[in-house]
Amino acid sequence: MKTARRSKITRIFLGINAVATSLVAFMTVLSGWGGVIDPRWSVLPAAIAMTFPAWWTLNLLAGVVNLFIAPRRLSIISGIAILATLSPLLTFSPVNFTSTPDNSDDDFTVMSFNTYYLEGYDSNIPDNAPNPSLDYILMTAPDIACLQETFVIPAGTRHVTQGQIDSLNARYPFIVSLPKANQVILSKYPAELLSTHTFRDTSASMVHLKLDINGHPLHLFSVHLQSLRLTPGDKETYRTLTSTRLQRHDVSEARHKLIPKLFNAFRERAGQADTLAAMIRRIPEDENIILAGDFNDIPGCYAVRQLLKAGLHDAYADGACGPAITYHASQFYFRIDHIMYRGDIKPLKTWRGTCGYSDHYPLITRFVWNNTKQI
Residue 71, preceding bond cis, omega within 30 degrees? Predict the structure, then answer.
């Protein structure tokens, strides 16, 4: 009798395990490739794509566990899902063993940094301390800095000192300030502004410049794509959702406030990405392009994929090692800042900066020209 009952329980357990393993494998594949689907057609895959690291980890764990549970063939399902998502995994967490060379005329660095209007996010500094974000830019000294959510702020405001302003002016002979786009471009090289574009939501913008880098012409796009436009109350709701204090009314509030904003942002970014991709395609294929900015979306999202289709390459996927988080506020831990490129350049190394004064971390890539010898 006990044996029969134990056998029945075992069959139930194995059945549940088979269903759970299959479901996790399916969600791993769906989340890994969710960015392929246009959010204007269906938003759900784009939202699920944000959970890809969690599903991939669960799938790997299920595969390992099933190696010790009969029938072991269930681990094959997990293995298939792993193989099917190797490409999005390497986009999320690439494996490139690189080193950063000394500065030379053959290479140059590009920084993308959403500075949160040079304010501190959840951070207090002494009254007489200089602005940490500007200090980090000066210390890192990128050759080109694409700064989003930034405008020229006078000394004495938000810890900006006259010394910092003087140092920036001395280091960057070409500073393009665009208040309507909430962007500032710092460049050591001659820079000509070609166009600016603000999208339907004026918080989203694009800046197009033409640079001359030691005789190499280069198109530079600095972008800030559609944000979620979350209020402090929305962010608190999300923090509650990701904590142990979750209540039924929190789920209801998220369904009525957070999800509509999330879905609207996906749709808006899809249209903005199409606009950018069309602009990229109009530039002759033999010309160099760098596109950097705050995409407000993850690796492998629809916006990134559209720009890849337009001929750009992902500098993080090609020049970084391991995963990274560039947004760290309100428990939204994602890499939503990107640097992309095309032409006679390649990334030597891409890395995330360490300044966390803003709600974003900087993203930095060192490029080298293909037609010159690498140091």
Answer: yes
Dihedral over Cα of 312, 313, 315, 316: its sign: positive
Domain ranges of the chain: 2-92, 107-369
Please give the sequence-ordered ranges of beta strands (E in DSSP) within the chain, or none if there are none.
107-114, 144-148, 174-178, 183-187, 191-198, 205-213, 216-224, 288-294, 313-314, 337-342, 345-352, 363-369
- CA 62/CA 357 separation, integer angstroms: 39
Q: What is the DSSP string of 235-260?
A: HHHHHHHTSTT--HHHHHHIIIIIHH
Fold category of 107-369 in CATH: Deoxyribonuclease I; Chain A (3.60.10)
Distance of alpha carbon 62 from alpha carbon 318, whole angstroms: 30
| pLDDT digits 0-9 by tens, 122-180 | 778 888 899 999 999 999 999 999 999 998 778 888 999 999 999 999 999 999 999 88
Q: Which of 144, 312, 303, 112 is nearest to 225 (CA)?
A: 303
How distant, in Å, are the alpha carbons of 116, 149, 207, 328, 375 from that of 359? 6, 11, 22, 6, 35
Q: Give the amino acid at 180.
A: K
CA dist 314 and 340 (Å) reads 5
- HSE-CB at 293 with a 13 A cutoff on CA atoms is 30
| Predicted TM-score (pTM) of this structure | 0.91
**Which has the closest alpha carbon to 94: 363, 350, 364?**
350
Distance (Å, whole) CA 84 – CA 27:
12
